Amino acid sequence: MRAAVLHETGQTKLEVLDDVEAVGFGPGKVRVRIRATGLCHSDVSAMNGVLPQPAPFVPGHEGAGEITDVGDGVTGHAPGDRVLLCWLPACGTCPACKRGQTQLCLAGFMNAGTPNFRRPGGDVFGFAGTGTFAEEVVVDARCAVPVPDDVPLDVAALIGCGVTTGLGAAINTADVSAGSSVAVIGCGGVGIAAIQGARVKGAAQIVAVDPVASRREAALRFGATEAVAPEDLVDAKQRITAGEGFDYVFEVVGKSATARTAYETTRRGGTLCVVGAGAADDHLRLNMFELFFDEKRILPSLYGGGDVLRSYERAIALWRAGRIDLQSMITHRVRLTEINEALEQMCTGTALRTCIEI
After folding, report:
1. Over the chain, what HEC string results?
2. Which of 42, 224, 327, 332 is the most buried (most CB within 10 A)?
């Protein structure tokens, strides 16, 4: 089977190999033929070591395809079913799940420590317990979520992570109020989804902030009322909010420097929503007086901050109704053999989302 493999953490290029085998099939598991997968910045963060991930590994966690086989005890799935992959499935029994915070279930994270693949040279892991830069994956049946027939698989793949994360940050975590002012710092795929979520919620002003001109232009097409470079954010804050700050600011970069900027751009009593996945050794500095005096809410948002299955259904419903645009978020398409071209497109900011067709 063909898959793209990172041999060592810190490498910037993937090697596409033909000698990879998906392993682990058995009771409770399904085998999925991947047809489309998105390249998410978290994949790059795992490659460079910002996010912890054993190596060697197959990146990719935003995928969709068809089930080819089901293990003993699996109900509700059959060969031929169209599914998207949920990289953080809820176990349903842990304290977080019982509280209704299924996005905080740790069962899915445990999958990252078990090899998903094998090569003649040894075991290979799958990023986030999946590894969708491969022709085939074996996952727990809970990871395979049915996709309605009218939803294209490339769109379904995006719903599996980036769309759910960005939409959910605006709708679930921040719960943006109608008529409010919003700033989104970082306008890749997740940031664009957050912009669309803020628009759906009725925000009056949505300012997109990104250093890449093409992303700023794209943000305007997806619902931003204004788009500025980072150096112009202070001016936008002054013009739009009379210097008070925005009601909601979304940090979608995953850096302490941009999180600090986001904090300073949020009005007193406003909401800073941290969406970007950052490094464990990158510390955000806040003093105790400003925490007390400004009364700003700091809300991290993991995977959209809500039940992911309900979030998938909501994204599909909004897409069907024409309230959000998902197809246009895919700005580039490549084959698996061109995966390093997709990495270049992401790192330069050329692409919002690149779909890898497998």
Report:
1. CCEEEECCCCCCCCEEECCCEECCCCCCEEEEEEEEEECCHHHHHHHCCCCCCCCCEECCCEEEEEEEEECCCCCCCCCCCEEEECCCCCCCCCHHHHCCCHHHCCHHHHHHHCCCEEECCEEEEEHHHCCCCECEEEEEHHHEEECCCCCCHHHHHHHCCHHHHHHHHHHHHCCCCCCCEEEEECCCHHHHHHHHHHHHCCCCEEEEECCCHHHHHHHHHCCCCEEECHHHHHHHHHHHHCCCCEEEEEECCCCHHHHHHHHHHEEEEEEEEECCCCCCCCCCCCCHHHHHHHCCEEEECCCCCCCHHHHHHHHHHHHHCCCCCCHHHEEEEEEHHHHHHHHHHHHCCCCCEEEEEC
2. 224
pLDDT tens track for 301-315? 999 999 999 999 999
Strand 21-22 to 82-85 pairing? unpaired
Supply the pLDDT for residue 349.
Answer: 87
At residue 357, what are phi and psi to the nearest 5 degrees?
Answer: -95, 125
Instruction: Quote the CA–CA distance of 347 and 341 in Å, as a whole number.
Output: 10
- Alpha-carbon span 180 to 203, nearest angstrom: 5
Angstrom distance (rounded) from CA 258 to CA 262:
6
Query: Residue 110's pLDDT band (boundaries 50, 70, 90)?
Result: confident
